[in-house]
Amino acid sequence: MEALIKVKNMCKVYNPGENEVWALDHVNLEIQKGEFVAIIGHSGSGKSTLMNMLGCLDIPTSGEYYLNGKDVSELGDNQLSEIRNEEIGFIFQGFNLISNLTAIENVELPLIYRGIGRSERHKLAMEALNMVGLEKRIHHKPAEMSGGQQQRVAIARAIAAKPPVILADEPTGNLDSASTKEIMGILRSLHDTGRSVILITHDNDIADQAKRVVRILDGKIVEDYYNEEQVKE
Questions:
Q1: Is the torsion defined by CA of 104, 106, 107, 113 positive or negative?
Q2: Which of 89, 140, 214, 224 has its CA 20 to 30 A from that of 27?
Q3: Distance, CA of 18 to chain centre
Q4: Strands of 220-226's sheet, edge to edge?
Q5: Mean pLDDT of the chain
Q6: What value does the CA radius of gyration of the chain take, rounded to a whole number of Å?
């Protein structure tokens, strides 16, 4: 079976020359469709740079990146934007909601950019908000919701268009322990429905909830293993 994500000898070098920094140093990684993978590393390890590459937010200095069999390492900005819009649902630590829009309007916004008609847009947004348990808060604005609820809106926005890949960057970083548990439960349920979930974190306890853990240090993958406790479930 063709891998969902295939990274070959990927390097990202900042400030090439005398003071160059190798944020990624010949990274090789394969992720299959339907996997739940945590990429873990401390600040400066290269995990955020790797996330930017996997999410087509940046391009490598050298190496190859195949997403769904397509080589995206050589694509231009417009093509990368199209792939981000159609293939990847992003969840960020900072929620990134628009403050003067309601929950449902925030979820519908990316669907407008995809050219989806009003009635279909509303249906997809309601399905996504139902999935994260916010069907009764659809007309609330971000300031009227808790941090956990705002992150659930952000998850609904990421999944509304049913992208094959969910890329979550420190999704529980700004949340208390109860909200963290809630958000991780939603990510697990998304994985159970067949989504591929890639979670970026610095927290071992969060990483241990994924089925597979990839540890990055100084721009290199130093560990890649399956979490037997989670695989058994």
A1: positive
A2: 89
A3: 34
A4: 88-92, 165-169, 196-201, 36-40, 212-217, 220-226
A5: 92
A6: 18
pLDDT at 53: 94
Report, as an integer, the average pLDDT of 202-219. 95
Nearest to residue 203, comparing CAs of 49, 41, 52? 41
Q: What would the two tokens of residue 199 be? A: 């979670």
Tokens encoding 11: 């390097």
Q: Domain 5-232 maps to which CATH number in 3.30.450.80, 3.40.50.720, 3.40.190.10, 3.40.50.300? A: 3.40.50.300
Indicate the helix (H) or strand (E) that contains 154: helix 147-159
Pick the closest to residue 88 from 19, 33, 167, 24 (CA basis). 167
Phi, psi of 3 (to 5 degrees): -65, 145
For the chain, which residues make up each domain, given as ranges?
A: 5-232
Three-class secondary structure of residue 138 per DSSP: coil
Residue type, 224: D
Long-range pairs, 47-53, Cβ under 8 A, ≥24: 47/200, 47/202, 47/216, 48/169, 48/200, 49/12, 49/23, 49/24, 49/219, 50/10, 50/24, 50/200, 50/216, 51/167, 51/169, 51/198, 51/200, 53/7, 53/10, 53/12, 53/24
Averaged pLDDT for residues 81-86? 88
Report the predicted TM-score, pTM, of the whole model to 2 decimal places.
Answer: 0.90
Residue 127 sits at φ, ψ, to 5 deg, of: -60, -45
Q: Which two tokens stand for residue 110?
A: 């990316």
Query: Tell me, what DSSP letter sits at residue 1?
Result: -
